[in-house]
UniProtKB/TrEMBL annotation:
Residues 316-501 form the Guanylate kinase-like domain. Residues 157-227 form the SH3 domain. GO terms for cellular component: adherens junction; apical plasma membrane. This is MAGUK p55 subfamily member 3. Gene3D superfamilies: 2.30.42.10, L27 domain, P-loop containing nucleotide triphosphate hydrolases, SH3 Domains. Participates in cell spreading through the phosphoinositide-3-kinase (PI3K) pathway by connecting CADM1 to DLG1 and the regulatory subunit of phosphoinositide-3-kinase (PI3K). Stabilizes HTR2C at the plasma membrane and prevents its desensitization. May participates in the maintenance of adherens junctions. Coiled coil: none annotated. Residues 68-149 form the PDZ domain. Keywords: Cell junction, Cell membrane, Membrane, Phosphoprotein, Repeat, SH3 domain. PANTHER family: MEMBRANE-ASSOCIATED GUANYLATE KINASE MAGUK. Interacts with HTR2C; this interaction stabilizes the receptor at the plasma membrane and prevents the desensitization of the HTR2C receptor-mediated calcium response. Interacts with HTR2A. Interacts with HTR4. Interacts (via PDZ domain) with CADM1 (via C-terminus)Interacts (via PDZ domain) with CADM1; this interaction connects CADM1 with DLG1. Interacts (via Guanylate kinase-like domain) with PALS1. Residues 1-49 form the L27 domain.
């Protein structure tokens, strides 16, 4: 700075206005102080001071290249795992964790042989003993290393996002090479996989975490093998059987539901609930095969996802409600749609029963012949169907498409088995699991003022509701985008409406195949 000031002062007589202004600025006290601090800091050297090479190098090292590495480690793990070479017995670096202390230093590489940690020889120690030494060390750590003969690639660039379809706690995983390096996550969290170099253990970070250091997670292939083994051994629950558990069944007769009017307004498709007959499926349909979507689910591990931002005027996503016993989906769906029929709608169902009174085609129902209905069944054109009093009822995929074509959010409530048929790039369903609040029975208070309110056991109905919710979560939770806990109709309606409104504006993580 001083040199610049001198040059400007020497030429001040012939200086232009810009140069004179710069000279005045440089003369101000605060700017001079800032520039002096900058010059002082710039002249300092911040390179780490490495310890001198020991004079008493072991004889084993005389013909080998030895590297002394000093790392500064805080409370975080060192960010490297080790293993013992099966052929030579040497302790070598197995992997470098992305973003960890070892990775940031750039001084430790995969394949390096570790000889000492803080002056302690590790040649005859077990890898777990060495890991314990590294984990307990704080501050400066000095490593004596024999570099690998060939340094592999630092990292192969990987930008893959995966939604976790299971819960994972590395502390409960005996197979992980280093529990401290493991990354715990919950089902539904999105992970950024930064390295797939190891086919068994990937490196990943949780999206949204402030900690950018990667952790180990089981790879998709390895986790699938483990789940397959556990299922074969009988320690993992089997896929849902054809004998379906009780889900949300609103009624047991065709007309018990609602006449289609809410707040004085008629809304097409709200009049009936045909799921009443799904448990009495007509014999001989689909050649005796299991209904679509009831086949064994794949082993839930990870699903590759991408960030999706809805655009104005774009075809809306399908809103799908699934529910356990007591969720009363039909009532919830009716209220939300009736309050805003310009934005939300439902699919008009099909039936084989004759038209009655003032009913109109395509309003209360699509009235079709039994032959046409069964032909559509054969071609898998129905999302759900059932039978009641010798008449077939069902929601067709075409009826869903008709609502979407009007640029409305189609709200459907289905049994969970139907999700497999809907999860396509065409419908891009947003799945909401509705479950009721299960409240424990309260004991009747006696007359004594000293009585304390204590909870009693669940009655049979509450137990069934809890068991139904647990079943849905266990077998279909990995397909759910949001969970809505229903305590009362009005509160649940407000929650559902908020979810559906954000669906058209907020960015969401969706299967990568839906946006490619």
């Amino acid at each position: 700075m001083a040199q610049v000031v001198e040059e400007l002062q020497a030429a001040s007589a012939q200086a232009h206005s810009d140069e004179r202004e710069l000279l005045q600025l440089l003369a101000t006290p605060h700017l001079r102080a800032m520039l002096m601090v900058h010059d002082t800091v710039a002249q300092k050297s911040f390179d780490p001071v490495l310890p001198p090479l020991p004079d008493n190098i072991d004889e084993d090292f005389e013909e080998e290249s030895v590297k002394i590495v000093r790392l500064v480690k805080s409370k975080e793990p060192l960010g490297a795992t080790i293993r013992r070479d099966e052929h030579t017995g040497a302790v070598v670096v197995a992997r470098i964790m992305r973003g960890g202390a070892a990775d940031r230093s750039g001084l430790v590489h995969v394949g390096d042989e570790l000889r000492e940690v803080n002056g302690v020889a590790v040649l005859h120690k077990r890898p777990d003993e060495i890991s314990q030494i590294l984990a307990q060390a704080q501050g400066s750590i000095t490593l004596k290393i024999i570099p690998a003969t060939q340094e592999g690639d630092r990292f192969k660039e990987s930008k893959v996002f995966m939604r976790a379809l299971f819960h994972y706690d590395p502390r409960e995983d005996r197979a992980i090479p280093c529990q401290e390096a493991g990354l715990p996550f919950q089902r539904g969290q999105v992970l950024e996989v930064v390295s797939q170099d190891d086919p068994t253990w990937w490196q990943a970070t949780r999206v949204g975490d402030t900690n950018l250091r990667a952790g180990l997670i089981p790879s998709k292939q390895f986790q699938e093998r483990r789940l397959s083994h556990r299922r074969a051994a009988g320690t993992l629950p089997s896929p849902p059987s054809l004998r379906k558990p009780p889900y949300d069944h609103p009624c047991d007769s065709e007309t018990c539901d609602h006449d289609g009017h809410l707040k004085g307004h008629y809304v097409a498709g709200l009049r009936r609930s045909f799921r009443l007959g799904c448990r009495e499926r007509p014999a001989g349909l689909q050649d005796g095969k299991a209904p679509a979507g009831c086949e064994a689910l794949e082993l839930p591990t990870y699903e590759e996802v991408a960030r999706y931002q809805p655009q104005p005027g774009e075809r809306p996503r399908l809103a799908v409600l699934i529910g356990s016993l007591g969720a009363r989906l039909q009532e919830l769906k009716q209220k939300v749609v009736a309050e805003n029929p310009q934005h939300f709608s439902v699919a008009v169902p099909h039936t084989t029963r004759p038209r009655r009174g003032q009913e109109k085609e395509g309003v209360e129902y699509h009235f079709v012949s039994r032959q046409a209905f069964e032909a559509d069944l054969q071609h898998n054109r129905f999302l759900e169907h059932g039978e009641y009093k010798d008449h077939l009822y069902g929601t067709s995929l075409g009826a869903v498409r008709a609502v979407v074509a009007k640029n409305k959010v189609c709200v459907v409530d289905v049994e969970p088995e139907a999700l497999k048929q809907l999860r396509t790039s065409e419908f891009r369903p947003y799945v909401i699991f509705v479950k009721p609040v299960v409240q424990e029975k309260r004991k009747t208070p006696p007359l004594s003022p000293a009585w304390e309110d204590t909870s009693g056991p669940l009655d049979e109905e509450q137990q069934d509701m809890a068991a139904s919710a647990a079943y849905v979560e266990q077998h279909y939770g990995h397909l759910v985008d949001a969970v809505l806990v229903r305590e009362d109709l009005q509160g649940a309606c407000l929650q559902l409406r908020a979810l559906l409104e954000r669906l058209g504006t907020d960015a969401q993580w969706v299967p990568v195949s839906w946006v490619r």
